[in-house]
Amino acid sequence: MRRVIDIKTEDITPSITGILAHQGMPPHVQADEPTLKPAREAIALWEHLSQPVGIFAEIAIHEFAQVYIGESRNEPETPLPNIYQRANALALFAVTVGHDVEQEIRRLFETNEFPLGAMLDAAASVSAEKAVDVVQDRFRKHLSVVGRWDRSKGVMPFSPGYCGWHVSGQRALFDTLHPEEIGIELSDSYLMQPLKSISGVLVAGAKDIFQFDDDFPFCSECATRSCRERIMSIIENQPKADTR
After folding, report:
1. CA distances for 74 relative to 80, 214, 234, angstroms
2. What tens digit of pLDDT does each residue of 119-177 get?
3. Which CATH fold would you assign to the domain 2-235?
4. φ/ψ (deg, to 5) at 201
5. Verdict on whether the full-model pTM lies above 0.85
6. DSSP codes of every residue in 117-138
7. How does DSSP assign 3-67, residue by residue?
8. Rg (alpha carbons) of the chain, rounded to whole number
9. What is the rounded distance in angstroms from the CA atom of residue 172 to the CA atom of residue 67?
10. 158, 100, 155: which is closest to 127 by C-alpha?
11. What is the per-residue pLDDT across 32-89, written as a single tens digit (0 to 9) for each?
12. Is-contact 42 123, C-beta < 8 A?
């Protein structure tokens, strides 16, 4: 099963709180007007320029094993193999918010409009993450329709470049999923174009398969430890707070 998802702009519009949080502002800090103004302008620009779209395709566990191996550059021990090998369903995915937003971000920086450029860059990053949630929800609904989903299960995305999965894994992922269909290309250095794109695998299965300790060597290099929030949202069966 392979599906292209036209994502509604209003479903992934970033909040001002989410944009400021992405830039490192603590939620308890009250932003002043000189900060809020470019954030509002960035949201308006994003709504005008964004062209969000996603794609996902279900993949068998043994087939994903080859995608995950990729160019054999993963860390020796990572949490993902122990998770996907116990999954009930897997799907490769990719999302993007389009080229126009990226071009405007570049133009703003080139013309020294740094505050607005930074805000738009954050808005695009936040909305791309929200687009993953939309595709994840569509995958969950697909599994429900075909009788392979119940409340005892959860879904979690994993992407090359994180959790010990080397970024070179993008090559095998692209060769299998072909997100070129929705306008995403991959450079020789494994960089996606448009830059505000995310790809990876959606893992669906019993909630307990997602529990792992964040004590792998590469975990110390992770600035956000966002996996902790995602794991808790799965275990508690609660949606993440919309701070994005």
Report:
1. 11, 17, 26
2. 999 999 999 999 999 999 999 999 999 999 999 999 999 999 999 999 999 999 999 99
3. NADH Oxidase (3.40.109)
4. -125, 140
5. yes
6. HHHHHHHHHHHHHHHHHHHHHH
7. EEEE--GGGSPPPHHHHHHHTT--TTSPPPHHHHHHHHHHHHHHHHH---EEEEEEE-HHHHHHH
8. 18
9. 5
10. 100
11. 999 999 999 999 999 999 999 999 999 999 999 999 999 999 999 999 999 999 999 9
12. yes
Structure tokens at 131: 């687009």
Phi then psi for 16, rounded to 5 degrees? -60, -40
Angle at 225 (CA atoms; ends 86, 174), nearest 5 degrees: 55
- Residue 181 identity: E
Domains of the chain, by residue range, sit at 2-235
Give which of 1, 4, 50, 62 is closest to 179, Cα–Cα: 4
